[in-house]
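dumping this here before i forget
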Amino acid sequence: MLVTFSGYTQSKRDFYLIRVYHCKNDEQLTRTETFIEKAWKPAAKRYGVTKVGVFKPITNDTAAMKKLYLLIPAPSTDYFYQLEDRMLNDTKFQGDGMDYLQAKHDNPTYERFETIVLRSFTDMPHLDLPALKNPAQMRIYELRSYESASEKIYRKKVEMFNKGGEIILFKRLNFNAVFYGEVLSGARMPNLMYMTSFENMDDRNEHWKSFVEDPEWKRLSTMSEYQNTVSKIDIVFLRPTQYSDL
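structure:
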């Protein structure tokens, strides 16, 4: 879920909350999606949220755990708790989301969910909506996580994006980045995460080809201070749901 907010003073840097629902089957996924679409999204808009996007991974593995990704930007970490508290005291929200909120122990709407808290990079302090022409359901959103071997090495990779100019390179090549974030709390720390967006998979592949062939990337990637800054890369391809605002 991707959210922008109104009624709050813009902070110097955004904070992001990523929530990933894990559902064992289509029935659980449908119930969770219904909750987001019919209860959570309307309630969020009542409390100042202006744009909501909901994403599902692109996969051909029918046996894999079903997932739903939420991305919520905010001016502070307190915003996340304030929004949740308001919803819990909202009688309309409680009624609209009853199936999800009152789920029984032997009939849950999901198996587990994981939560990641991030702070935006200094060189892209605020979330940006993609400037794409294709309908949302044709687009590709690429969510990447870069893990590092230690905190010190991780900081060098973050520096590579900011001071080193990797963000500038992505912008020049029109990667339509949605956000870049330092993970403050999560299961794969130390790591950073960022999301780029494309018209379709062919467009994505063409952009990455131009990236690795760009002289500036070749210069940056061979600098001694930035060697071995990433120990593991995790990539998830996402597509917005039909009820997404994006």
